[in-house]
Amino acid sequence: MKRQIQTILTSRVALMTTLGCVLTFGIVFFTLKGCSDYKDMSNLIHPYLSEKELKSNDPIKVDPFPEPSLDRLVSHLKSELGITEAEVAPQTAEMIAQERAADNLNYMDSRKDAITRQNDFDRRKRQVIANPELLWTPGFILPPTLDVSELNKKALYDYKIKYDEEIKLSKSQEERRDNLRDQSQKDEITSLERTRGKAAILAENYPPLTIAKLYLRSSTGSDKSKVGMEYAEMAIRENPDSFEAHHVWALCNRMYYLGTDDEKVIAGFRQLVERFPNSSIAHYDLAWNLEVHPVYPIELGVVRHHPYAEEALGAIQRAIQLDDRIAPNNVTLGNCYVVMGEYEKALAVYQGMPQVYYGHAGGLTYDIYKVQEAVSKLRQQEGQ
User: Fold this and answer.
1) Are the beta carbons of 319 and 331 closer than 8 angstroms?
2) Where are the beta strands (DSSP E) in the chain?
3) Distance of alpha carbon 341 from alpha carbon 354, whole angstroms
4) Angle 243-257/280-289 helices, nearest 10 degrees?
5) pTM to 2 decimals?
6) Three-state SS at 327
7) 10-residue stretch averages of pLDDT, the chain, 384 residues long
């Protein structure tokens, strides 16, 4: 009788062990596969949008973009300090008269403690309220200067995957991957075939979107960026409504065509904006990839034509209105105004920048110099 009971118990234990192994394998398998991992990411990537709004083809209505101006900037400074021109300290006039180049450098010294820098910033605010023309002075930078270490900028998105930490392969898979490497070294297969073969091995464990993300940071025009596009396309077919999948495809597309076909790069982000008109990220990336940089945009008071300036301006404005993680005083916004000849708007943007990096403010000050130079030439031409 005891033997029968032991036999029954042993059988049950073996059965439970088998079921446990099967269950464990299933959990591991579906964890690795990620169950396609197409959950709603809008609360992470777009914290201000619902899934419905993000997927909608109908653009959200926003108020007209508040066009920057020096008057608007000065009014904002008055509001911050709670003062009027008449209430500006009398000694401010003397401080303005004594303003020297050395003061600009001292003001930008990030080695000062936070209180000292804030006092310097408030002093400059009072100076500007008393004499807004100071904003046109080459090298006069109004925004406070911060150490890079003090900045806590929120990333709009982060698709980075750490291969060595997050990607796991079995021993047999590693052997097959190494075999592909050996074949490539012997010229038995092409580099593209090796990359596709390696991706196929990864696809045994991970969804297409994960594989596409792995190749986001590949070099431009490489086989990896091409394969990344292919797997991003698979991810889109799996879930056509996934913003994340469409965005990763646009980023892979950029890496593949960057420097060889700029129109295809831009087309990828235009397609993203068309599919997701309420996405701040789509509009921001479109504006950024239109590459509106004011490099020598002004010659003898004449602005060179930039084919994408208006489109980039509209994109960055809408991005700012959709997402407060994007600074209203954005470099791209200011650059658009510069190349469009809207000098005062550009200067108001640059002088309202929330951060200026100590030792790295050359780009902003250079643009301000160019604006000042252009305005001076235009005034001379007009006999002013």
Assistant:
1) no
2) 145-146, 298-299, 302-303, 356-357
3) 23
4) 10
5) 0.79
6) coil
7) 40 43 38 46 79 91 93 91 71 54 52 71 82 78 65 75 82 94 94 94 94 88 92 96 95 92 94 96 95 59 73 96 90 86 86 67 59 62 59
